[in-house]
Amino acid sequence: MSESTVRIGLVLPDVMGTYGDGGNALVLRQRLRMRGIDAEVVEITLPEPVPELLDIYTLGGAEDSAQRLATRHLQRYPGLQRAAERGAPVLAICAAIQVLGHWYETSSGERVDGVGLLDATTSPQDRRAIGEVTTTPLLPGLSAPLTGFENHRGGTTLGPEARGLARVTRGVGNGVGDGLEGVVQGSVLGTYMHGPALARNPELADFILTRALGVDHLEPLDLPEVDQLRRERLRA
Ligand code: GLN
Q1: At 1, is the pLDDT very low, low, confident or very high (cuts 50, 70, 90)?
Q2: pTM here?
Q3: Contacts of 156 by beta carbon, 8 Å cutoff, 6+ apart
């Protein structure tokens, strides 16, 4: 590893990582390597403290009980919070949005204090949101429709410090009737999209990479198989 190696934290893949969400870290690493930039994935598992000096952090979705274990761990070892404060990009998928909020209620109605990185709260909705989700991004710098697979019962309400990542055109998204999907606050970006999200949405992957590298622009990668995947999923 050289000093310029980009280090991508895959946070608690042993408890959070449904539907291949760990793939988001691999997509980031691969898109860097294809551009000749050294990159490695650092897995942070349950017994370990969360390091604060990585360049990017990704967190995946989880079932309620695993989600609670992860919440406790992140509160005990606040490396992620310190990294976000200094502006390191954090990608939070599904349950991870809920964990990073002020609090969330489990499907049995119990309220759990979150990490407080996002001005967001989550409560169970009457119906589980499950299926394809397609959205139009609201975040400046993104223009392509976003595509993912959602499976959650929690509905997330955003407070004034947080903004929606996108507007839902198909599916449920945050699920509280405001038409929004995902959340953006500072360097933290959350979405209910599994997929993994960054395999389906290369523009979003490169958005995170430009922020991590502190550059305005990255040369696009010509990957016909990714275009084909997008066409297929956007039609599904
Ligand atoms: N347990 C959470 C919910 O159902 C998150 C699920 C997930 O991450 N897929 O809302």
Answers
A1: low
A2: 0.97
A3: 97, 98, 101, 120, 121, 122, 174, 175, 176, 183
